[in-house]
Amino acid sequence: MKLVTFRSGKNEQVGALTDDGQVVELPAFASMEALIAGGERALDTARELAAKCQDDSTHPLDSVQLLAPLPCPPQMRDFLCFEKHLRQAFDAMIMTRAAQADEPEEEAQKLRDSGQFDIPEIWYRQPTYYKCNRFAVTGPDTDVVWPGYSNVIDYELEFAAVIGKRGTDIPRDQAADHIFGYTIFNDFSARDAQAVEMEGRLGPAKGKDFDGANVLGPCIVTADEIGNPYELEMTARINGEEWSRGNSRDMYYTFEDLIAYVTQSETLHPGEVLGSGTVGNGCGLELGKFLQRGDTVELEVDKIGVLRNRVT
Questions:
Q1: Same domain, 82 and 63
Q2: pLDDT tens across 151-183, in order?
Q3: Of the four listed, 26, 148, 235, 301, which is most buried by Cβ atoms within 10 Å?
């Protein structure tokens, strides 16, 4: 199923997307989190309701406002699962610093030789992540307001797994059973603020934490409909022009790896979100170009859809 949270009039509701572009109300569920927490029985009920939909409970997609499928997740973690992104981001940092030197090419080589921009060995030993601001979530087709303290805003092309079943110390070979479904994640970043605060060796903070910075949507596709989550083409377009393309097959760590790691002596709960991190080539930092005010960002992931936002 493709599940959404939507607003029709003043009412916020849970619904299902149909193949012909309709939204079917699922009135049995007060929220997406309640549906997820209900497990297989709740999903069966949702399928029955969608199959028996009546005209008065069905809306054309363009007549409703889609919200983030989880408007306020109980927890969000964003990981760094793509080696290419990390490697290229470090190289971009080298080029930025070297550009300020009298001999940029020589300075760039010195920085590379210094080793300070090598991928840390710890990254290959265990997953790394930060906890996102769950109150900064917004959904598709909304404006993301440029934070007043930043001059450099970037998009990040990611997708995310939504946890469906509570668990602690989950073995890797059982981790897939705890994934409810998948959604697209745009982790907007204030790069200038992020660059400064990361020098403090803690964070990120204001580089990631501003209203609307964490965009989820347009729907959650249940795991059974996705099939193999590691064969998904991922694309980003800015004002209709393709900037980024990658594939989920390049994840160094899978979501099963992440679940097994996080749940060591810690419980994951239904509705928690685990971000993949940015796919290789998946942000302006890697490409040497950034967003401008008024730009429209579209992230597309196979089998999930298109997540669209404008930066204002």
A1: no
A2: 999 999 999 999 999 999 999 999 999 999 999
A3: 301
Q: Are residues 58 and 86 in the same domain?
A: no
248 and 123, same domain (yes or no)? yes
pTM of the model: 0.95
| Long-range contacts of residues 223-228, Cβ cutoff 8 Å, at least 24 apart | 223/164, 223/176, 223/179, 223/180, 223/181, 223/182, 225/1, 225/2, 225/181, 225/303, 226/181, 226/182, 226/303, 226/304, 227/303
Instruction: Provide the terminal-to-terminal Cα distance of the chain, rounded to the nearest Å.
Output: 33
The tens digit of pLDDT for each residue in 16-59 reads 999 888 999 999 999 999 999 999 999 999 999 998 877 778 99
44 with 118, same domain: the answer is no
* Dist CA 250 CA 63 (whole Å): 37
Q: Give the whole-angstrom CA distance, residue 1 versus residue 202.
A: 39
CA distances from residue 165 to 38, 268, 310 in whole angstroms, order as listed: 9, 8, 34
If asked whether residues 235 and 190 sit together in one domain, one would say yes
* Residue 181 φ then ψ, to 5°: 180, -165
Residues in contact with 76: Cβ distance below 8 Å, sequence separation at least 6, in sequence order: 131, 132, 133, 134, 137, 214, 272, 273, 275
Say if CB 246 and CB 236 are below 8 A apart. Answer: no
Is the alpha carbon torsion for 179, 180, 181, 183 positive or negative? negative
Domain range holding 184? 76-311
148/116 same-domain check = yes
